[in-house]
């Protein structure tokens, strides 16, 4: 081996200065800078796009967290609400919202005259339209909850109609109102007059978060309460099922399964499942969970199961990649001190793979949270007014979901729903952030290089 | 299960939700759950069988088909009540700042058909501007947003506008002369694919958004959608008639279609409040010309009384 | 190799801890270990020597079935521990590895704290009844591996932040802490300075009173100092196996002779 | 409520079993855990598992099939739990190989979990096969697979050729990937190799939000902002038509959505490549980018390919962005500024439309679904093969 | 340490390749290298010796700024190469590392073929004009690292499938192939048998004719054999730096003395 003569090539390494880069180094450094710039550019592009999207969402939706109310005294005329006069709740229950609507109309008329407001061209329809159709229902519920109120005059806080509300949010202007068959310039002038008298105000709107959906005629009353619960329930199911099952499946495939045809088939299968359009999972859910297993329609449990199946491939793919990336020497080290394969995986490999698993979880859950298509077929893209019960039974009650609410509202005719939809998107993103925060925190904890 | 379950057409959905909401408010029954997902999916679910796990009512923007009744029967869904709730008008509207249009069926045919007749010859549609079709139409590029082939509205549009225009303009004759009967029929309804006629698979909100980003576009809308957006849209007349609930109810404005829902009779009595809900739906206060549905744009059924009677009697569809 | 069988016969059957017969190892097509017959005695230090790449590590890894983890690796022949075939289907490799501990050639501490590195084995094997006992085991093991003084103030820092030689000693401590019956050490002192080396050798000597130790080393001196038996491998063959004295003073095989005489380190 | 109670009761039993098992075996070993075959907790787990798992399965199956009321279930569940517990207890002694039993048990659970993927596939195929069969009874398969026109009609006489949809799917996905792969990969590289921990700690989750924004937002973004912009500044000046919706619009916007799929997953994998490899390359005088390109990326390749496949999968499965961005017109063309559509969009629209549910126009959705399934299966097999070929295993 | 300055003065300024003044290294709070002053001469082999954990690797990694990659690590003081401060902002660490090559303590072959491992450096630095030249460099480097015969038939197999010692030699070949001006070798022979060790030492001797070589070793003998200068580190301090002969025959510092006299390996 003494034949090793070294070095072979050019004997005189030119003593170039470190401070002066030679031609080749300059080129390489330029390449390096370009590479780095691409990277930074990629991040900046992503962040910029995020900012743009967030900006559109926020500007479009922040309005739904404020709502315009008319606050006037309403006389709950006993003659109309309790004809028999004995305050029997059963009797009062028979009075329909129509009657309450009339009471409100009278009250508003009275408020107008009492405050000496006069507006040219104001029609009776303008006045009665001023108040949301939801207001009588709310008033009725108030009375049913407390029959003592009958006969009294109460200070009612009444939702104003969506156009008036839109007027104070810039969505409706005098010009558009002139063309709009659902409002009129006179109505908006009335609103302004009421506002001057402090009878009308735009306030923080809790009911957007707590109230259920409302029909197309009452955009001002629509809320995401049921949807939040439905999404929450579904995410619970997904979290409880998809993450453990996904991780377990990945562990088996990556660490235990013999490497053969069968595992290849499973592997291809899983990546293929990721490519299955989400609506197909809806078809499966309808066939398997509703028609075959007999679970109820529109129930978060079914939604959760379908979303679980849909997220599994994402979690499995991410987890497997993360497990693969753990160096084998770690496994050897554990086995070498007499740990079982299972112990080496659970004690050492899994913690190291955790960041990847959590990323998969974040992305999988984000996808599950925002998905509408699979819910279409299992009846969750629905109009649901009643809140589901507490889990676990509540999982079987009808509920809607946040993306469903967004989807529905963007399809409605009344433009006020566009704002609601953006509001629901904000809620959805906040929801997502809350979910992710924990995962992100954990991920940072587990992140390390070796 | 406590609540009524309704599924089906997204055209019927708004009316259905308005009624469901009012029903929930004014009765002791829970608010019915109303799904959207299309007439097809709704009827399919409807025909899945009888029992707690199946829906009670299917909304449809078209009458149920023979084949669907068969499928229903095969799954044990036999006694089906058909309830017609009113009519949906179809209107043509453009951006509020645009030109005024007075359409006729032949204008639409000539603007959108794949093949038209020029000087007695069948040619691929050469028109690019409306005023090339008829001189008193505005000088504006042709661009129409028509419902995609998934929508029931498309069927009505093809039949009552394009096909009618085919006939009116005399193109049908020319087609029949130039090709076989079947082909002529097809040619009468085939729309051009050069981008002047754009299919919309989404909803009217999408059509509206497209008009706003292409101001010279003309969209096909439902009447109720237009009525909620009169500040953004300018409606065109059709055959000289301006669309409105009145002009449609009177039959002056021709482009409309009936809306239905179907009820499983077997569920009446089993599901609480089902009968009450159906009766509530077609009652005068709700579905009548002064009710909230009409206010929202539904053309009230002139024969509402017949419908109410059929519901009260629980009349099922004739089995055949 | 004739001499080998003689040696074997002088060893009473009960003293044999591990025995290999016709052991073959393949990496895919590559035949890395060929027909190795060897008996490793209880309470004895056995040294494996031989040029780099001759198969020492490979053979060592056979003895506690660590080769199972290399996919392309295939082991044939019969290897027994206390008379039981360790490649038998019924044998639980986990139990086997608990009995036959291992220090790897490349130090591979867990990315955990130093304390956790050492206490991991005792924990999973339940060697300590309580925290105090565990602390005791950790300290003893680290002391044994001559690392205690350097790390006693930083037991909670990650084991991966240690210097090369410290990591190596950490791995020794980790293996010792599990109290195996046989300890396989693949070049345990390669990154250690003379003083640390002598301390580890002292440890090995202590361990010998209870266990059997197999050590791979490139240092002839080390083999001579710590081992009672030496096996010389060459190109996958076990060329010679004998008492260490005999190997170094009267090697039987010319290959052994030339390897030993080329001694430098 | 009773089912909940049963559930809680069983879990309580399992917990109790855990402690009973532990203390039993410890006392049998005279308090010295070293005389046990396995760690005491394994004996506990053994009992807990035998108590809970079979019972949980029972409850799960029961709640699906509901053969009788919840009281019967409660009784049955308790019997099963008690039996499992008794069986496990009877085997508990210091020589019992509890760890092996527990691990075998867990192993079977793991296998079961991975079988769910298979079951899902089977379920998907089965739930579509029947209707696909119905479709092909009404519509010739040659026309479906080789037809170049897609124009469903209500009145029958539809042409349902899949080719324009396949083309649209591939074209849009290609553009989406052409956007997301470079951006995502460069972002991942920058985050894991160059970025300061602070930048990384907020930029990565921020980018992940892109994956969580509902697709309808992207759709509207495409429809209202990107589409008109591309039309006015590219398509019209270049004479490539004046369609507001185009393959390009949908592709670009979908690409944005897919960035985090590529970036976050790749970032984790790149981060997991051992530092010693980077050191090795840097020590030879390579620049950081050379290190990344020549050493780190090849080592992380399988994971990155997985991430890209996931992104591609999402691209293929996306509906909203395509509907609003690319339109609903099925056509084959090379002009990226023309409207096209994808298989998935048509699956959704035919399923949620107003057509007769027994007619080919609706049933075609199932045939489309199954065909797409087969197509992606083919692509995945190719991908697996490629990864196998280029995989570099470190250490 | 007084002696040190004398030695320094005898060296003409041009001969100094690397010089460190008041070099300090911290890992977080830990002060790992304290006030090290040293001049490494051109065309000379310098050995760093000292007990495990004393800071040899740390200091070595300062010389080509490999410590930049460790986040918690902070370097102070002045280190120059050919009179230029290598921690200067304008200095490109890449160019620096191309000039100052490194063999790491733990062998870290790339997960690529053996050929690609060795050809990596020449490729990125453009040292070969064509494939034939590249082949030539790869062969020469592998021969120099005494690995050629063992791997010449399997150049396309992954470098990670080699034995420990083979990997170490592969890393040496890889570093040599880039033709640096200074070669830093962290225990390059720790996993090598005596014959391979002697071949690597021969290589080092050859390299000395053109380059400067710094070698960390635990083997006093090796230091004595290959180096002309020796630096003894202890607990982060450079205790003594002198001609190798002088260090081994007349150590000035008692710590050096006791370390050397405790020699074993
Ligand atoms: N990444 C790190 N983080 C924290 N401390 C470290 C790190 N690397 C090394 N150290 C500590 O710095 C000191 C010097 O380490 P170094 O690796 O330089 O020692 P060494 O002389 O090379 O030892 P050996 O001969 O064992 O390789 C040791 O105490 C070590 O524990
Ligand atoms: N995973 C593997 N795949 C393929 N070949 C391997 C693998 N591991 C080792 N080999 C080959 O098997 C032979 C024996 O390797 P082994 O690691 O047992 O050598 P060794 O005697 O321990 O050498 P060293 O002293 O250098 O560590 C070598 O030629 C090596 O290249
Ligand atoms: Mg070895
Ligand atoms: Mg070191």
Automatic annotation (TrEMBL), chain A:
Residues 228-439 form the ABC transmembrane type-1 domain. One of its GO terms (molecular function) is phosphate transmembrane transporter activity. CDD domains: TM_PBP2 (cd06261). It comes from the Bacteria. Keywords: Cell membrane, Membrane, Transmembrane, Transmembrane helix, Transport. One of its GO terms (cellular component) is plasma membrane. Gene3D superfamilies: MetI-like. It is found in: Cell inner membrane; Cell membrane. PROSITE patterns: ABC_TM1. One of its GO terms (biological process) is phosphate ion transmembrane transport. The chain crosses the membrane at residues 37-58, 232-253, 273-295, 301-323, 349-370, 421-442. It is a multi-pass membrane protein. Pfam families: BPD_transp_1 (PF00528), DUF3333 (PF11812). Belongs to the binding-protein-dependent transport system permease family. CysTW subfamily. PANTHER family: PHOSPHATE TRANSPORT SYSTEM PERMEASE PROTEIN PSTA, PHOSPHATE TRANSPORT SYSTEM PERMEASE PROTEIN PSTA-RELATED. This is Phosphate transport system permease protein PstA. It comes from Paracoccus shanxieyensis.
UniProtKB/TrEMBL annotation, chains C, E:
Residues 11-260 form the ABC transporter domain. InterPro entries: AAA+_ATPase, ABC_transporter-like_ATP-bd, ABC_transporter-like_CS, P-loop_NTPase, PstB-like. Keywords: ATP-binding, Cell membrane, Membrane, Nucleotide-binding, Phosphate transport, Translocase, Transport. It is a peripheral membrane protein. One of its GO terms (cellular component) is plasma membrane. The keyword Nucleotide-binding applies. It holds the Pfam family ABC_tran. SUPFAM superfamilies: P-loop containing nucleoside triphosphate hydrolases. It is found in: Cell inner membrane. Its main location: membrane. SMART domains: AAA. GO terms for molecular function: ATP binding; ATP hydrolysis activity; phosphate transmembrane transporter activity. Part of the ABC transporter complex PstSACB involved in phosphate import. Responsible for energy coupling to the transport system. This is Phosphate ABC transporter ATP-binding protein. The lineage of its organism: Bacteria, Pseudomonadati, Pseudomonadota, Alphaproteobacteria, Rhodobacterales.
From TrEMBL, chain D:
GO terms for biological process: phosphate ion transport. InterPro entries: MetI-like, MetI-like_sf, Phosphate_PstC, PstC_N. This is Phosphate transport system permease protein. Keywords: Cell inner membrane, Cell membrane, Membrane, Phosphate transport, Transmembrane, Transmembrane helix, Transport. NCBIfam families: phosphate_pstC. One of its GO terms (molecular function) is phosphate transmembrane transporter activity. It is a multi-pass membrane protein. Coiled coil: none annotated. The lineage of its organism: Bacteria, Pseudomonadati, Pseudomonadota, Alphaproteobacteria, Rhodobacterales. Its main location: membrane. Pfam families: BPD_transp_1, DUF3708. Belongs to the binding-protein-dependent transport system permease family. CysTW subfamily. One of its GO terms (cellular component) is plasma membrane. Part of the binding-protein-dependent transport system for phosphate; probably responsible for the translocation of the substrate across the membrane. It comes from Paracoccus shanxieyensis. Residues 166-383 form the ABC transmembrane type-1 domain. It is found in: Cell inner membrane; Cell membrane. Gene3D superfamilies: MetI-like. The chain crosses the membrane at residues 6-21, 42-65, 71-89, 109-130, 170-191, 203-224, 244-262, 295-316, 363-387.
